[in-house]
Amino acid sequence: MNTTYDVKLGGVQYRSDRDTPAYIARWKVAGKAKSKSFRTKGLANAFLSDLRQAAKAGEEFDIVTGLPVSMLAARSSGPTFLEFAQSYILRRWRTSAPRTRETDAYALLSLVPALTADAPGRPEPEELREVLKVHALLPEDRRADLTAAQAVTLRWLEKASLPLTVLGDAAVLRRALDAVTATFAGGPAGANTVRRKRAVLHHLLEHAVEQKIFGTNPLNEIKWTAPKAVTVVDPRTVVNPAQARRLLDALSMVGRKRGARLKALFGCIYYAALRPEEAADLRANNCTLPASGWGLIVLERARPQSTKRWTNSGETHESRSLKHRADRETREIPIPPVLVGMLREHIAEYGTAKDGRIFCTGTGGVYSSSAYSRVWQEARKLALTPAQVASSLAARPYDLRHAAVSLWLNAGVPAPEVAKRAGHGVDVLLRVYAKCMDGQQEQINGKINSALDV
């Protein structure tokens, strides 16, 4: 523990610019400003009085938390942050999707090492994260056996982890927020990553409130502005129908049938706006494929990809309910004749997997995202100009889904129907695709002119 006798006590500041007015006790330890919020002025003054008595008694103060050693010891009777993080993961495990488990753990890989005391023998950051990833943040029956060096790392982490209660201090919480805003390499993290990690911290502290460790979520007291995240589709990624056809046709020329075998899968993403994970679990009995005219897909399940340690089966792909839908809830998508034909040809040529899946490898397995992404990049080189290949146009297979939804909206399909087919809420749909709805600009401008001429 890093301690000092350099303590300067301040006063109590009343703050009325919050949802709930608060009294802020302020003081400095080793020149670093500290603060703590209270509901009443009496509680804030009592806290400062306790600090004053500790300083008069010649106690050392912890530089990280700003608290006297005696007060820190009293607060450490509860769980450490590591212990509470482990219980948080276990409580959510049964009801969480594999990707949610992975998101939770990924955030904790930043938070747990940051919320430790300055104890001697600190392991390297990557050593701490590895022990957390393969052992400490998993249920006991999934934990990997540790090497002798990893066991030493875990013991250090268990001893150095700060008490959960110190997260009631603003300085400690800001330390946590600093951790989620940086990558593991030390650079600035992306806005979406920061928001996801901050959300995990907030939810973890909500659990602590439920268990009466905190009266209110201390994170709500911190003035912190989340970085702005990109939540709309970039129109530059969206292909037009002619470009989409060229890309799909080019797939037949990629590899020894590798591209041809994936053509209908990419067709489902473009013509039916399926998510790749939905196409991965599409089965023959989900499809109505008439000899002519429109067909129908009734989606039942999806097969997202995740790291094996986070799935129930221990496999990278696991069938589960549709995104944003209740278990066993389905989604109906009418499909145009061109996709009906592609699916009929695919099934005739390659058959289906033993479980009825339409898209599978030659051995009946599931395509990894890296495998079909490599095929897609080869098709882009064949179908697009060098300038387009270097651009963001259809850079990812998922961009075909964006192109489908944008096409439907600009064709005048009502937003509720587009949302129903794409598996979105209408509000999300209109927000995400706001920049792509420009196909009707002249028509809209004409309506405005007519209204102004009245």
TrEMBL record:
GO terms for biological process: DNA integration; DNA recombination. Residues 315-327 have a biased composition (Basic and acidic residues). Residues 307-327 are annotated as: Disordered. It holds the Pfam family Phage_integrase. Keywords: DNA recombination. Gene3D superfamilies: Intergrase catalytic core. One of its GO terms (molecular function) is DNA binding. Residues 233-446 form the Tyr recombinase domain. Transmembrane segments: none annotated. This is Integrase. It comes from Nonomuraea muscovyensis.
